[in-house]
Design a protein that fits this description.
With 297 residues, the protein is of the alpha+beta class. The chain contains 10 helices and 6 strands. Helix 8 packs across helix 9. The two termini are 28 Å apart.
């Protein structure tokens, strides 16, 4: 946790003028960032460099949700600390093309007033509304069409009444835009799956190996099923004539893409057998891919 600087109306105004919380792809700027000049977050923050720009994640739980999100089929863009418009505005998909969704959609101030939710303020000043944000906003492409998936991340499902109201405000913001909204907490995934994700995420992420190469691995997947991890990697290395490091990358790239649907509910150590499961069950291990959301209890 970083300490020092505090949130002030002038700081927030500066951020918004800089375009924080807006943009797409490599041009996106998170509203909250992991910098020396930003107020500290309440968890272990980190910067991930797994794509064309650094991603700013403010807690361990947000990092885990980010890893789950990165392997969702059809993902084309992921934006963290996404600023929710306070005023009525165009649909967020219009940032990709003006042809998406005409008209204006209610901002957080409008929604708060409509549903009787007290809008957060900066330092409790009535003239300075707090800029709400969504932890992760995914842009997905299926059958040639773009859609959004909004994700809020919390450390557990036991939330104060005030936090529940703020989540309701965020949820209703996205519902007004016909965007699915997920609340991801540790209760939505198995700890064993999370450990495998965080342990092996450096391997195979954001790779685009040739389809032919990946299909070759899929063709002998039955020979890998049941082998200890070390033997499975050696099989890929020998059959494709690649280095140990490349075999490791190819194996995990196939896992993250569902080409090798591995049971992640077991610690993946060198001596642990690799068990393949049906694809539907593989994606159920991922709360983002399966659209599994926590209840506001």
């Amino acid at each position: 946790m970083r300490k020092g600087r505090k949130f002030t109306p002038s700081l927030i105004e500066k951020w918004l003028k800089e375009g924080r919380g807006t943009g797409v792809f490599s041009g996106f700027k998170p509203l909250h960032q992991v910098t020396r000049g930003d107020p500290g977050s309440s968890g272990l923050s980190r910067i991930m460099n797994l794509s064309s720009r650094p991603h700013h994640l403010l807690s361990d739980k947000e990092y885990v949700a980010y890893l789950f999100a990165r392997i969702v089929p059809g993902l084309v863009d992921i934006r963290e600390q996404f600023h929710l418009s306070q005023e009525d505005s165009r649909h967020e998909l219009s940032a990709y093309s003006l042809g998406y969704w005409s008209g204006l959609f209610p901002g957080t101030l409008t929604i708060a007033k409509e549903f009787g939710i007290k809008h957060p303020r900066i330092q409790n000043r009535t003239d300075a509304p707090w800029p709400n944000s969504t932890d992760l906003l995914l842009t997905l492409k299926r059958d040639g069409s773009l859609s959004l998936l909004a994700i809020s991340v919390k450390p557990d499902s036991k939330l104060s009444d005030r936090v529940k109201k703020l989540i309701e405000l965020e949820k209703r913001y996205w519902e007004a835009r016909s965007v699915d909204f997920l609340l991801i907490t540790p209760e939505t995934y198995l700890e064993s799956v999370m450990i495998n994700m965080t342990t092996y995420s450096p391997w195979g992420h954001d790779r685009s190996s040739s389809a032919e190469l990946l299909l070759r691995i899929k063709s002998f997947s039955k020979d890998i099923d049941g082998l200890p991890l070390s033997h499975a990697l050696r099989t890929i290395k020998d059959r494709l004539n690649v280095s140990n490091q490349e075999a490791q990358n190819l194996f995990w790239e196939c896992v993250w893409k569902g080409i090798l649907p591995v049971d992640l509910n077991r610690k993946a150590s060198p001596g642990t057998p690799i068990n393949l499961i049906i694809l539907k069950d593989f994606w159920k291990q991922n709360p983002v891919a399966s659209r599994r959301s926590a209840w506001l209890s």
